[in-house]
Amino acid sequence: MTFHRQSGETRVIAIGMERLRQSEHGEVDCQQCHVRGFAFFPHPMEITETRTCLECHPREGGAAERDRAHDFDAIGAEFRDTAHHTSHPEAFRCESCHDPHAVKPPDGSMPIATLIETQNAICRECHVESAAEGPLAAPAEGGLPAVHAGLPHAALHLDGLRCIDCHAPADAAVSHRLGGRNGRPARCGDCHARETILNAKLLRHHPKDSSGGFAGFTNAGLLRHAYVFGATRSVVIDWLGYLAVGAVTLGLAAHGGLGLYFRQRPRRRRNVG
Q1: Coil, strand, or helix at residue 158?
Q2: Contact at 8 Å (CB) between 218 and 233?
Q3: Looking at the chain, which terminus has fewer C-beta neighbours within 10 angstroms, N or C?
Q4: Integer distance in angstroms from the first to the last C-alpha of the chain?
Q5: Which of 174, 179, 227 is nearest to 202 (CA)?
Q6: What backbone phi and psi angles, to 5 degrees, belong to 195?
Q7: Helices (H) then strands (E): counts for the chain
């Protein structure tokens, strides 16, 4: 179903009812959000009023406990600090990323690859692969691979991680402060380390997969998804490496010590004679 404005703009306004039923708002009446001007069709857009996300959340009553886990007051503060809002304060809203008719928080049932694809699709509606398309088209940039050209194996990172795993602050498992003034984005060493932040970020909905020790590897759950240098490490190979380095160091020390010892012996003999 499409709606043609007098300006000539065409908007698709069809709502996928099955997606809506399965979403977080599946049991919410339309009029609880669309509060004025929707009694007739076409809707007179100049008098319609739709409540924003933060006008409803945090909720009261029976749903208050579910909202408490998300800390919407903190989300609102982070949202106002994000680069999206500070650059486009009038145009950018929660629903710019989170479709209210389909939003559904991950619960661990979604495979990690599907989670990455689904959440990255939100970002790529604006930050598209081609530099010449989308609302943020910038032909000079050359598209996402070119923008990330300074990243080793950029294609693997773009396909194997969520955008927010790198662009959100490294010290928070969940944050809406994307590119904001507060909070440091993730660095290479935050992920490529034994104590990788990916366990708290990408794998946080899969706790059984984030535990280490599978077949002698650390961060075994991450290894099931991808090999991450520095994070998915073989404990056995690590110890063999430590022993090899130790043995070589000890051998060099012994070689140098014995050489010095035997060089000194003839001198002592000559001095005695």
Answers
A1: helix
A2: yes
A3: C
A4: 110
A5: 174
A6: -90, 60
A7: 13, 4
Q: Give SS3 for 36.
A: strand
Distances (CA, A) of 3 to 10, 17, 141: 6, 18, 34
Residues 135, 144: contact at Cβ < 8 Å?
A: no
Q: Exposed (0-12), middle (13-18) or buried (19+): which is 199, by Cβ within 10 Å? A: buried
Residue the block writes with tokens 């949202």: 79
Q: What is the pLDDT of residues 114-155, one digit of tens each?
A: 889 988 988 888 887 666 666 666 655 677 888 888 888 888
Q: 98 or 47, which is more confident?
A: 98
Q: How far is CA 252 from the centre of its chain?
A: 46
Separation of alpha carbons 131 and 248, rounded Å = 52
Find out whether 110 and 203 touch, Cβ atoms under 8 Å. Answer: no
| Whether the Cβ atoms of residue 3 and residue 11 lie closer than 8 Å to each other | yes
Distances (CA, A) of 159 to 63, 121, 163: 36, 11, 10
Q: Name every residue whose Cβ is closer than 8 Å to that of residue 67 and which is 6 or more positions away in sequence.
A: 57, 58, 59
Containing 3, the helix (H) or strand (E) segment is strand 2-4
Token pair belonging to 42: 């076409």
Give the whole-angstrom CA distance, residue 145 versus residue 162: 15
Provide the pLDDT for residue 181.
58
Asked if 179 and 77 count as a contact pair (C-beta separation under 8 A), the reply is no
